[in-house]
Amino acid sequence: MDIELIKSAPRPAPKPTGKRELTKAQNRLTILEAARQVFAELGYGATTVRDIIRATPLASGTFYNYFQSKEEVFQAIQDESALRIRPRLHEERAKASTVEEFISGTFRTFFEFVAGDHSNFRTLRMNTDTLRVRMDTPETIAGFEELREDLVGAIAKGMFPPVDADFLMAAIVGVAFELAERMARRELRDPATATAFATALLLGGIHALPTVTPPDIAAP
Amino acid sequence: MDIELIKSAPRPAPKPTGKRELTKAQNRLTILEAARQVFAELGYGATTVRDIIRATPLASGTFYNYFQSKEEVFQAIQDESALRIRPRLHEERAKASTVEEFISGTFRTFFEFVAGDHSNFRTLRMNTDTLRVRMDTPETIAGFEELREDLVGAIAKGMFPPVDADFLMAAIVGVAFELAERMARRELRDPATATAFATALLLGGIHALPTVTPPDIAAP
Amino acid sequence: MDIELIKSAPRPAPKPTGKRELTKAQNRLTILEAARQVFAELGYGATTVRDIIRATPLASGTFYNYFQSKEEVFQAIQDESALRIRPRLHEERAKASTVEEFISGTFRTFFEFVAGDHSNFRTLRMNTDTLRVRMDTPETIAGFEELREDLVGAIAKGMFPPVDADFLMAAIVGVAFELAERMARRELRDPATATAFATALLLGGIHALPTVTPPDIAAP
Amino acid sequence: MDIELIKSAPRPAPKPTGKRELTKAQNRLTILEAARQVFAELGYGATTVRDIIRATPLASGTFYNYFQSKEEVFQAIQDESALRIRPRLHEERAKASTVEEFISGTFRTFFEFVAGDHSNFRTLRMNTDTLRVRMDTPETIAGFEELREDLVGAIAKGMFPPVDADFLMAAIVGVAFELAERMARRELRDPATATAFATALLLGGIHALPTVTPPDIAAP
DNA sequence: GATGAATGAGAATTCATTCAT
DNA sequence: TATGAATGAATTCTCATTCAT
After folding, report:
1. Number of domains chain B is built from
2. How far is the CA of B20 from the C1' of F10 (A)?
């Protein structure tokens, strides 16, 4: 009896390592890369799904097998960046034993990432000379929250003075993004200079901050 | 009566209190206010001119008597904000005789403006829980440049140490916008707390910054 | 003072009898007539909005100023027919003093309408040789309900025997539509023959029907 | 083993109980049942092949091993119904020796079928409260023709008076479908009541009909 | 035969803008 | 100037169908 033939009728699923899966993964990357370029060229607002498809050898329908809209593509790009850098940032802070290590480690990692991943950062801030846009996606925002939690932990451990962790996080994020923006515009994109500047500013400033006694860091 | 004359746009001295002028000004404001609301609700990217017109009792054609596109409306909104706050910020810094006055004056003015002009700030940063957007228009960016120039001037006067004015401007802007964002989310929108935090951070940090001797502030 | 000019700013509404209104009404009819022809030619299912627009000198966007979809156009066509014939049918039955007048008046009016309004009826039943479709829109169904109510009234007046008015209405509707269909297929579309047949069938049959005593026609 | 042979479609005598055949039959039924539900839910016009496939555990390509289009699926569903009831209707009429048996047998068989096969009838007439659709497929129409031929035969035998067989067929069909529709809407779906009503109406009416002498039933 | 992603024609719809009134 | 319907290019998106695996 021909088992192959009998089984073939309701076949469960083709091997997930076949050529098909490879093509699928490649197509997804093709779209993401095309979108990155188009966003950088036209700006997020002016980009249409058509533009992205045109920058691709794929058929229009194929786009919709992977993403629902340009928003979804954009988020995928952002999230990819955020997912790559978040663990590094967290790890850097986790192994810090001093305020200096915590702050400089955070800034250095961020600025080096931005300098090395320039095309992504351009997408991140789709800035022409006349209009600057910054979009933070859920994954990015989650990274902000992680920073805050790390700060709360560092305060609890006594590494940081008991300051407003929420505002401090905001200040670090603000300095990081704005300096990155300026750095990216300079002919010499030097992460070390930016890191030195930001670290000095924050370290000098932190000890001058007003202290608070929020419930979670109050003395027993 | 000469109708042609009345219709002619650049009439030498049209009575600014005439009913026609009032209507014209009102229509402009009607559109601007409608746009503010629609931008805040849908976000800039998703908003169409149609949406703005729909939020108005006016006809679609009337829109084009006042603005050419949604971009122009958006800029008008932004510029209105920026134009109102920029002179105040500049004046505050002009009359400062110490670093402390320069910094605290800048932050206080900004945070008080944001706290009092909440709806405009919402338009400026169309933030849901899952996606945060910030757009800087030319007028806003011009305000950044003005800050930098004021910093350069203050450094030249010896008020500030000779630091990287470009990065310092970026840091101030970053801290200001991110803290404003956090402040806006708190149930108690207290500009004083934000001002105290930001001022302490910057004052403490500035003196720790690496000094530079850029051409424009170098000794003769 | 020029009142005309002052008032002109927030003008309430242009005279509804202007050229604009005329064009609007004409465009609506243009679309309806084009749709009628396309439905008759391609059948309802195969027709697309594009097809209707193509059969029109109008721009694609114009269609959507009048209708949302082909379904809406279809309903407008149907309702137009129903609205034209319903009052006639009702009036015919209202002035009937015998069962014979009630029944023959109903059928005659219907068959004459169908014979005279052939293109609408073809749309009504978009029948090829291999697939027959009949769609009843709300207005049509309301006409069925009206017939039932007229029957209930006639029963209450003693004109009809106390039969199941719901089933009788259904029977009349079924005979009317199916005979109309057959009539429409004959080379000689003669409403009189159809009327005679249907009237004889119903008159002969009604007195043989089982009688019922529903609450609303029960003896006091 | 000769694979070619196995794949060849018109194999003389494939074992009808083999596992392959079972799977094939099952897939066909799976599609048909899914289509029935989707048609009933979305209506025929709004249903796409995608919708049917989605309601199935099968792959899209598999669909085309069984049907070419939704039209073909729809016809298969209809034909299934028609093929089941047509022989019964014909047999009922064939064994009738009186008009009463002919008519009551036809209606009873039809109404009992509808009452017992409710889901198919729903597909046949996709009726919401606001839009009612009836579609007759070739097989259904063939059933109408068969009724007409049976009527012609009965007239030739002298069982029926010499009436217009075409119109009489139409009347029977119209009464049958409309009453079935009303019956299906009642809480008590009682075929006996519908049969009694329809039979009484037709029997009473037939003898009142105008007689004709069409060529085919004319005396020699 | 079963699978399901790719295809790309084309259908539905929107939208900024114009212009006769 | 205000009006608002017409325009039609552009965009989004769906869908039946194919075909390599």
Report:
1. 1
2. 38
φ/ψ of residue D216, rounded to 5: -75, -15
Paired with D134 in beta bridges are C134
Q: Which residue has the tokens 């297929």?
A: C185
Specify the pTM.
0.78
D179 and C205 Cβ atoms separated by less than 8 Å? no
Residue A219, domain member (yes or no): no
- Say if residue C151's pLDDT is above 70: yes
Q: pLDDT (tens digit, 9 = 90+) per residue, D96-140?
A: 999 999 999 999 999 999 888 766 666 656 655 566 777 777 788
CATH of the domain at D164: 1.10.357.10
Q: How far is CA A38 from CA A33, A48, C41, D2, in A?
A: 9, 9, 45, 55
In sequence order, what are the beta bridge partners of D132? C136
CB atoms near residue D143 (< 10 Å)? 21
Domain that holds residue D153: 70-205
Q: Residue A23 CB closer than 7 angstroms to strand E?
A: yes
Q: Is the CB of C167 under 7 A from strand E?
A: no
Residue B204: list chain A partners with CB under 8 A: 204-209
SS (H, E, C) B173-203: HHHHHHHHHHHHHCCCCCHHHHHHHHHHHHH
Do chains C and D touch, with touching meaning 3 or more CB–CB pairs less than 8 Å apart?
yes
Residues B33-58 have pLDDT tens digits of 999 889 888 888 889 999 999 999 99
As a rounded value in angstroms, the CA-to-C1' distance for C131 and F6 is 38
B173/A170 touch (CB, cutoff 8 Å), yes or no = no
